[in-house]
Amino acid sequence: MVILSVESSCDETAVALTENGRRVLVDEISSQVDLHAVYGGVVPELASRSHIQAVSRLAESALAKSGIHRRDIDAVAVTAAPGLIGALLVGVNFAKAAALALGVSLVPVHHIRGHIAANYIAYPQLEPPFVCLVVSGGHSLIVDVRDYTDMRVLGSTRDDAAGECFDKTARVLGLGYPGGAKLDELALTGDPHKYELPRSRIDGYPLDMSFSGLKTAVINLVHTAEQRGEAIDKNSLAACVCRAVSETVVSRSVEAALKLGYGRLAAAGGVAANSFIRRDLTAAAGKHSLSLYLAPLRLCGDNAAMIGSQAYYEYLAGARADASLNAYASMPVDRPTFFDS
Question: Whole-prediction pTM value?
Fold first, then answer.
């Protein structure tokens, strides 16, 4: 089954063609990093306009590179939630038009479910059930993937996402946008024990997380040093932040995996590219004899191939949408409400 998929939830426009949920025929991505860098972050209106300019061109390019004819497409899939509402609407409306023109089914996909499905592409042997850590700029979740479309949130952040903490730290250190990768690179030559930073624990909810205290502590530390005329060891502070975030997400993910007893732990999302998190997950999985599935770096960020992968399983489960499909800025990953009246 060949699926044409569209992803436009934030600042990457992507169109892919996938086959049977596991094979990527082509994955076209247009990044908006240069567009938003001057503003220090994503500007929603500019993101939406850029998606409009790019999506048709990417679809044509995907078809040309794959050699797939329009008549060979069996369904069109699209990220319909969560994300920037204007950006999502560009993809949703393009996908609705494409499905209508091709005379095929339209399949809405939850963005976080797509991130989880990135591991199906990288690891053809991976099947549910397993526990998946999903960490990105806007989301930090630990998910019980019971089946391809049956999921339950085991733990989540109560405030900021891990990626938000990385981005704010990068900004206060003057690293620019996007900050996550730059912070990670800086941290590699720092002392991860030089600065004492807080870790969160939420009474009664051992798998939930909080990163606002960590973010505030970093900002206060830097501002206090500036007021006193003291130098900040940027490399070491970056390393301490990466260590704090990694210890928070890794310990809870492993705890969840051991509690459920699946023996399989996966990780996905843009922040799953962080070298501290990848190293600590690998070590913890080895210590506890867990099979670890780390999405490769090329599939950690937003892409349409992961949407096409999850769409295959949503299609098999009967998910279909019509021209009334809308976009949603937020939606729980374990209870998608695309079809609620």
Answer: 0.95
